Amino acid sequence: MSRSGNSKGAGPRLSFIIPFAGFLVLAGFATIALLATLRGDRDISQLPSAMVGKPAPTMMLPSLVNDGRSASASVSAVDFAGSAFLVNVFASWCAPCRAEAPALALLSDSIPIFGIAYKDRPEDTRDFLTEYGNPFSAIGIDRDGDAGMKWGVYGVPETFLVDADGTILLRHAGPIDRRVLDDVLLPAIARLP
After folding, report:
1. CA angle, 187 as apex, 181 and 189 as ends, to 5°?
2. What is the pLDDT along the chain (193 residues), one digit of tens a residue?
């Protein structure tokens, strides 16, 4: 056996050590995330939003006029200036949006809701509202998804709480169920000045 052959096999190879060290780092992060989830410190359904604490986008959208409550040709978050409101991004093709319809109806008794019909055809949105009710004070049509992008939407439904100054206070991704209503949105609305 040659001397060079012994030195190759005696020490650990970098081609093994580097991937193994990378695996240990990733396993460490995964373990920390898993433990936080098991302790209840981490809500896996909520992704961070860069929009919280920032001004609400003021992009004008074509208004969906379906029952006389939205009378103007365009609508924006600016139309709600001076009072707190919710923004709900929804679509007729979104099954979870159907599930949260009763919760939105309850919320509409407490606060105005600006609906953004995301990547939806107006006729499909109207059919959706006929079937599941219309809790919205106004609805903007976001056919190409540009407004959703400005709001930082990952998917529908998403709901934002905006204060009277137009600052986004809270974002909820996913359907509003009883727990979200009672533990997140209604307490946040109650804390508004």
Report:
1. 95
2. 444 445 555 566 778 788 788 778 777 766 665 565 555 555 545 566 789 999 999 999 999 974 444 456 899 999 999 999 999 999 999 999 999 999 999 999 999 999 999 999 999 999 999 999 999 999 999 999 999 999 999 899 999 999 999 999 999 999 999 999 999 999 999 999 8
Alpha-carbon span 156 to 90, nearest angstrom: 5
CA atoms within 13 A on the CB side of 154: 12
Residues 168, 151: Cα–Cα separation, whole Å: 10
What pTM value is reported for the model? 0.75
Cβ-contact 140, 62 below 8 angstroms: yes
Q: Which helix (H) or strand (E) holds 90?
A: strand 85-90
Beta strand pairing status for 113-118 and 138-142? parallel
Residue 119 dihedral angles phi and psi, to the nearest 5°: 45, 50
Measured over the CA atoms of residue 69, residue 166, residue 100 and residue 182, the dihedral's sign is: negative
ω into 57 cis (within 30 of 0): no
Q: What contacts 187, CB < 8 A, 6 or more positions away?
A: none
